[in-house]
TrEMBL record:
EC number: 1.1.1.100
Family membership: Belongs to the short-chain dehydrogenases/reductases (SDR) family.
UniProt superkingdom: Bacteria
Keywords: Oxidoreductase
Protein name (record): 3-oxoacyl-[acyl-carrier protein] reductase
RNA-binding among keywords: no
Pfam families: adh_short_C2
SUPFAM superfamilies in the record: NAD(P)-binding Rossmann-fold domains
Amino acid sequence: MDLGLNGKRALVLASSRGLGLGIAEALVAEGAHVLLTGRDATRLEEAAARLTEGGPGRADFAVADLAAPDAVAQLQAAATDKLGGVDILVNNTGGPPPGPITETSSEAWVSSFSTMVERVIGITNALLPAMRAQGWGRVLTLTSSGVEQPIPNLGMSNTLRAALLGWSKTTASEVAGDGVTCNVLLPGRIHTARVDDLDAAAAKRQGKSAEEVAAASRASIPTGRYGKVEEFASVAAFLVSEKASYVTGAKVRCDGGMIRSI
């Protein structure tokens, strides 16, 4: 299926590794011009070179820290310089550290909210006017399975990512008439370094090995395994494609059936 992404310009946040990089790779494979972003210049440069070599699209990169006060301005300027504009925005951020929600400090809440929520809303609002003016745009926001089934010891993530659901749904209704879609994609246990870190933290709390924790986690998923990054990225590519032009305001799961709610 031709997703109609050839020549589209995509800004993918936090894309030096993990889910962000996987989505960037899927978009380049569909012919898009993708701007990778993150804090590690070496990792970004290597990834951009590899994706461009694989084609048929291409990748550039820009070093940007979502925690910086001027992150939105930096990202918008980089997108203008490298891409000439943005047709597709993939909102992705790192997650906060695990820990009991009742022991989270006010400072930690403010810091994580700024990076995980405020910056996402800010860059989206900065790019939406041009998308609306051209009559085509895609905004895809990655959250977590925790917004539907709260994950133990990840209270900050459950809370802050849930805030993005209401924001995305509201925004979708305001821009749909201008040809712009806004959707949220929920990953389950997609095998990334972040999942390995969380399994290791759980193992330490429970006095078990990381493999014991991972095995129990896999057993709780109907498919019996962790998802692959490329599987998740394929769903993302569809949601930002021409083919998904009538999908907006949606919350889509890619979780192997892990989330138990209907």
